[in-house]
Amino acid sequence: MGAGSTVIVVMAGGKGTRFWPRSRERRPKQFLPILGERNLLAQTVDRVLPTFGPERIFIATTTELAEETRRLLPELPPDNVIAEPEGRNTAPCLALALVHIARKRPDAVMAVLSADHWIGDEPRFLEDLDLAARHAAGTGDLVTFGIPPAYPETGYGYIETEGEGPVRRVAAFREKPPLETALAYAASGRHFWNAGMFVWRLDAFREELRAHAPAVLDPLEAWASAGALPGDLPAAYARTEATSIDYALLERSRRVAAIPARFRWSDVGSWPALLDFHEKDAAGNIVRGDAVLVEARDCAVFGGARLVALAGVEDLIVVDEPDALLVTRRDRAQGVKQVVDELKRRGRKDLL
Amino acid sequence: MGAGSTVIVVMAGGKGTRFWPRSRERRPKQFLPILGERNLLAQTVDRVLPTFGPERIFIATTTELAEETRRLLPELPPDNVIAEPEGRNTAPCLALALVHIARKRPDAVMAVLSADHWIGDEPRFLEDLDLAARHAAGTGDLVTFGIPPAYPETGYGYIETEGEGPVRRVAAFREKPPLETALAYAASGRHFWNAGMFVWRLDAFREELRAHAPAVLDPLEAWASAGALPGDLPAAYARTEATSIDYALLERSRRVAAIPARFRWSDVGSWPALLDFHEKDAAGNIVRGDAVLVEARDCAVFGGARLVALAGVEDLIVVDEPDALLVTRRDRAQGVKQVVDELKRRGRKDLL
Q1: What is the pLDDT of residues B108-133, one digit of tens each?
Q2: Which CATH number, 3.40.50.2300, 3.40.390.10, 3.40.30.10, 3.90.550.10, labels domain A3-266?
Q3: How far apart are CA A140 and CA A129, in angstroms?
Q4: Which pTM was predicted?
Q5: Do B342 and A292 touch (CB under 8 A)?
Q6: Pairwise CB contact (< 8 Å): A312 & B335
């Protein structure tokens, strides 16, 4: 059992404020061409389209973003864009995808991907995906991908595995660790970054949700049994427990396996993370758009229509949009979130 | 002899690139409201208008800027805006003003001011101006104002004086000094910044130019003798020696006196110099326009129509214009000149 019965579910409902001012509520990170010519969502679909075909690729997103998502992905059947009536975290989102897909493909394996991550070495990625699908199909396991830690990141959750080999048992999910713990994890060979990518059989996923997260599943199953009328979905969805799939299911199920990824991965989670993906000039600068740099070092300019001039500055990230400009330091870009919070506080919907 | 026979000549032909991107060739510093609501040229005229009246205030500028200058100063007779056919430094500019004014007011005293400087304590300034005019009228001296050095500036020329009292003999003009010399000058009590403001009788000015700088004066006197036809001025002006009044005259004449200024003065020569004139918030920041600052310290935002967000940055100056943006450090803003030079090299007339 391989790609033939596997469907892809791309989670694409993220709002992501960390790429402000380029990202906005109506133009989230997955819609942006911040890596290459195509937006991240399209790149995610491109990656799996030749193997799986358009009929078996689904996008889970919010009602607000559904129309634009369909416009950006004309190759997919419009009905394959599943619209959450409201954001209630990942568990209800994936339960809705389950109910949606199971009507036509009850025997499928479902592979859950993120719309706004970067994947390197795509052939290996497809091989790992196939391995996961075959393992999930054969065993009923909930399969996660574990990313070998490139460094002791304290901002990710970790998967603690047991044993050796390409598919391993999961001993525990570990919360974002303090630095000392992260250092130990990065050295252990048993700990992996939890990249939020999952592969499971629909029936196994349903069974495990029933066992561990009925408050997530039950309202949607009741809705489906009553005819799955679109007009009834918002009320049903509002009754689901708003929680993450990690917390509701993966940390509780005893049927979780992990595959150490052989592909490369990044969540490209912030402006500084993006810098790793751009070529730098001799002074360490990255320039997109019209710019003049004088005695500037290790700076990045993501410009727009206007000229950006830097003189005698270092380590800055400058992002220029027609209605807003961001200047931050590459080592202090977490402040972008506070900028967005302040704009919310000021009621500046025009800039959110 | 006082204000009654004194005319003001405001030198307003400067191009000044140091306030780019706000200043441009057609919108030089003197046209900008960078200190308060009114532009610097209008403030300069406002300062002397009540005392001298519009008929006795002249503006010397370039042909390119003459029309806009008249528009900005509707209170002055249009003929009082004297247009240099081309920029040939300050000596031909002031010789042209001499010839222009002498036709109607041969007995006047002429006080030369700059269009883009800041003057503090205006009553004292007017007192010093009156003192200078009376001294110049009574003696025929070429009177300069010397600014008591506030710190050992190495970017200005200095006037070395002899004796004591409110009007002193000038022993020498000193070029921009190295730091050690500037330290000695600042401590001496005998050295003053040369602010480029002068007061002299027209006849004394003519005599001294004839004696020391005939190559500056002769083409213009010949033009005046031949009827002062406007169409003949460009050719006559092109024959004048392009040189500064300091070099051509003041460093050579033996009739130069200096008045230590009792008013306050700044040439507001750069973005960092401008910061001294703005109130700072508790974190040392200055904000003009729409901005959000998060963990920003000692920064200045001169914004425009768009929101400017700073996050986790220090000591920056950000200047936002519709077609260009500058980010520099307050201690390295001399790089602004290099930015402008680079734009010239690239042929970016749209931004100059």
Answers
A1: 999 999 999 999 999 999 999 999 99
A2: 3.90.550.10
A3: 15
A4: 0.88
A5: yes
A6: yes
